[in-house]
Fold this sequence. Notes:
This protein is mostly helical. The chain is built from 13 helices and no strands. The protein has helices at residues 2-34, 36-46, 53-65, 72-87, 95-115, 120-133, 137-150, 155-165, 170-175, 177-190, 193-199, 208-218, 220-223. Helix 3 crosses helix 4 (72-87) and helix 4 (72-87) packs antiparallel against helix 5 (95-115). The protein is globular and about 65 Å long. The model is unreliable at 19-33 (pLDDT under 50).
Amino acid sequence: MFRSQSVSITRIAFVIVTVVLVVLAGRELYASIRTASISIVAERIERGETVADDVVTKYASRSVVDGHYCRSDIVAAGVTLVLAQLDRQNVNVNYDGWAAAASSARQYLRHALSCMPTNSNFWLRLAAVQSTIAEEPASIAGMMKRSVALAPYDQVMILTRFYFWNDFTDATLAAAERALDSDLMTMLKRGDRCRVNATIREISPQLRPIFDRSWTNVGEAATARFRQRCSK
């Protein structure tokens, strides 16, 4: 009798687990179908293919609407689209369009980080978007610090961050001084000389004194390699 009850309980547990797995699989399939077009358009943008502005706007809007999904591939596609939409806006020509795109990008990036709080790139992108909306040095610096802390030695991320460091104001650079110094020292000590040389070709006036200080601190032995010619 006890054995029969044990078998029955095992069967019930098996059925419950099976039903749960089927439901979860169904939800994942539904999410994939619903967001398939978003992923396709995002992939085209990432490959550098031409995508019409109205198409980007349409699917960027869908990304924000579908922002309750937390699956990494869906979230990443959404980030690509909302940032592409913002990049295509001209604040001097259509302020309202730019403001709406900036607000949507910030909203979606916050959602993305709620799903993946350890994604260094998302913290960087949120800092960049926030800097275009309003000058909030402490807030922007905090986001940049997290980006650096999460990917301190990733060359791609460091070189990407340099682009934004180069565009931030004196106040933001000062607020994020330690994180910025870390990026510059790592880049100069460990970075591929040709890629670094291409990245530092133009340095903004506000970043120049900080960069020069890091260059001096690294020392002649480390920086001499940057004077070597790189093949085209």
